[in-house]
Amino acid sequence: MTEQRASATSSYAEAGVDTAAGDLAVELMKSAVSRTHGPEVLGGVGGFAGLFDVSALKEFAHPLLATSTDGVGTKVAIAQAIDKHDTIGQDLVGMVVDDIVVVGAKPLFMTDYIACGKVVPSRIADIVAGIARACAETGTALVGGETAEHPGLLGPDDYDVAGAAVGAVEADAVLGADRVRDGDVVVALASSGLHSNGFSLVRHILSKSGIGFADRSDEFGGVVGEVLLEPTRLYTSPLLRVLGDPALAGAVHSLSHVTGGGIAANLARVLPRGSWVEVDRSTWSPLPVFRVLSDLAGSTLESSEGTWNLGIGMFAVVAPDAADAVATALTADGIPSWTVGTISTSVRDLDRFEQGAKGVDGGAVRLVGSYAV
């Protein structure tokens, strides 16, 4: 039996799978993962399944679970190109956990999945450390994950990341289009940059321009790849503080995470059918990275509104008498926020509006005016 086991292990290594490297990667990430664990997490790191004590849900009158799953997309190609992997994890948490808060839910726990061509322990540890830091910032326990080595399918330096999270919300506190009313104000929450969408276009533009990710550029303000890897801003904790503020109780009616599909489409998803809003471009100036990329492409900022967030990472649709207070609270909490439009249900021609998105028959949105300089 001993000889057979050794032979099988040797064959697996010869096939390109290094189980010892996988074990080392787990050891390197253990402390970072453990820091996301509160008393609700049982069993620690390394089990077949993560355990989370949900006894606290007994205090809910009618608890609902919210879940979301996502990845980071082709942004990982830039991390791989410049061998910088410590921010991709935050991008993953932002894409997953910030979808959960959109319905008003508090995140409970998350799991991750990393597929790679070859396990490089320090690289895997960097990725997971980034996930763990962002989980800690959003109050999410990282209860498990998987690192899968796929030699022959992925190159030695290739990897992809994905994750899923679960949260909870009271049934009567769920945010959504049904709460939105005529006269509600749309508050924009600033992004930190490109976040994790539109990188196929970014890579195409740079390739056509002959610019490498490791190049230093005055236009970009540094090493191109490092600028593009600016991690996704995390909105969960500041938004939960606003939602839990007694002075602002019930003020926020719906939230929209500006991800794939761009600005208008994502806002339209959280507005009721028959409503519309014009988002005023003059209320903000898109970040320099968007202007540089648009200039390189020989296009306008307006032409990328369906691909990039252009400086808005989240929208909050708020009762009109609380809009200023919500924007002020979020800004004080580190997320610059401002009003961009007002919801209307009056009858009008909606020909040039974007209506609903991703299977949701929602409201209508269009951007108007010119961007601030």
Automatic annotation (TrEMBL):
CDD domains: PurM. The keyword Transmembrane helix does not apply. It is found in: Cytoplasm. Residues 181-344 form the PurM-like C-terminal domain. Its EC number is 6.3.3.1. PANTHER family: TRIFUNCTIONAL PURINE BIOSYNTHETIC PROTEIN ADENOSINE-3, TRIFUNCTIONAL PURINE BIOSYNTHETIC PROTEIN ADENOSINE-3-RELATED. This is Phosphoribosylformylglycinamidine cyclo-ligase. It comes from Leifsonia tongyongensis.
